[in-house]
Amino acid sequence: MTGVMLQSDALRVMVNPDVGGTITQIVHRGLDMSVLGVVPWEIVDTPLDPVSVTDERIWLSRYTGGWPLLFPNGGDACTFAGRFHGFHGEASITPWECKAQEGRANLTRRFSSIPVRMQRDLHIADDVLTVFESVKSEAEQDIKVMWGHHPSFGSDLLAGDITIETGARTVTADAGYDPPANPLKPGAVGKWPMVDGKSGPFDLGNPPKGPMAALAYLSDFESSWVAIRRLDNSIAVALSWDADFPCAWLWYELGGTLEPPWNGRTRLIGLEPNTTCLAYGLAEAQRRGARLLTLKPGAEVHATVRLHVFKPRWAITGIDKDGRAG
């Protein structure tokens, strides 16, 4: 797989500018442990035209189990405001211009699906990866979008028992996603980490090793962060953000999907901050009254997302201003 390598003394990060500017690998060098997921199929390492991504099956051919960006759509392909948007949006599968040196990469793209330009700056400071994004509308009218991140964690991070900790206070099980391995009662709302399950209360903070396939939404954040920690305290990640992302999609694929290309062989957990608490695309989100982000003509909107990769000593209770867990 082609890519650009960013390094600090603590982290090694691989980015693929040719396919979505996706972050494909994050390794803690001192611990020699990888935290992003992998998938059990061969990846096609070429970009896609956004109009060709009519369904999830096509999108998955480029999905590495890593960290794509979802913009200007998230979820199902749809026609919205007279424009077609592919599954999970143009940003995730098209090429980006890239300039990189040592621990920093700058990626830019002018989108074809909407008149918007985005700049992304990725840099590493010790054991924290920061992604700063700037979006500017070149339209003469308002544009509604979905904007989110899709980091999927796995590999060494999920090789042992884990716990999920967060600043969110409310969790809602998706009302429509209900595969056979889903333990949650669709549409149930609970106080994190508990939500009604099909067989009684279910603790989303301590998921089973598998099988499990579920989708929920974190909201009502006291502080905007989510973390996964190995219970043996060998490694942890803490994702935090200061953008207009009022929710985070929480996706579990723990050997629970038997259909191709998953074939019950994938262990991933997605911690996915997003502008919109519904993972079914722009058209369906608007139909159901979910919030979309409105970009004003000429306006510039910013987002900062940070990932701390570290060896923990105890439970994670918060994140400091630099994105480090405490």
Report on the architecture of this protein.
By secondary structure, the chain is mostly beta strands. The chain has one domain (4-310): Beta-galactosidase, Chain A, domain 5 (Distorted Sandwich). Helix content is 3%, strand content 44%. It contains 2 helices and 24 strands. The chain has helices at residues 56-60, 282-287; strands at residues 4-7, 11-16, 22-28, 33-34, 69-70, 78-80, 83-85, 97-101, 104-110, 116-125, 128-137, 143-145, 148-149, 152-153, 162-173, 189-191, 194-197, 200-203, 212-230, 236-241, 247-254, 267-274, 293-295, 300-310. The strands form 6 sheets. Strands 8, 9, 10, 11, 14, 15, 16, 19, 20, 21, 22 and 24 form a 12-stranded antiparallel β-sheet that branches. Strands 1-2-3-4 form a 4-stranded antiparallel β-sheet, with no helix packed on it. It has a two-stranded antiparallel ribbon with strand order 5-13. A hairpin with a 5-residue loop joins strand 2 (11-16) and strand 3 (22-28). The model has no long low-confidence stretch (mean pLDDT 97).
Summary?
This protein is mostly beta strands and 326 residues long. The protein has helices spanning 56-60, 282-287; strands at residues 4-7, 11-16, 22-28, 33-34, 69-70, 78-80, 83-85, 97-101, 104-110, 116-125, 128-137, 143-145, 148-149, 152-153, 162-173, 189-191, 194-197, 200-203, 212-230, 236-241, 247-254, 267-274, 293-295, 300-310.
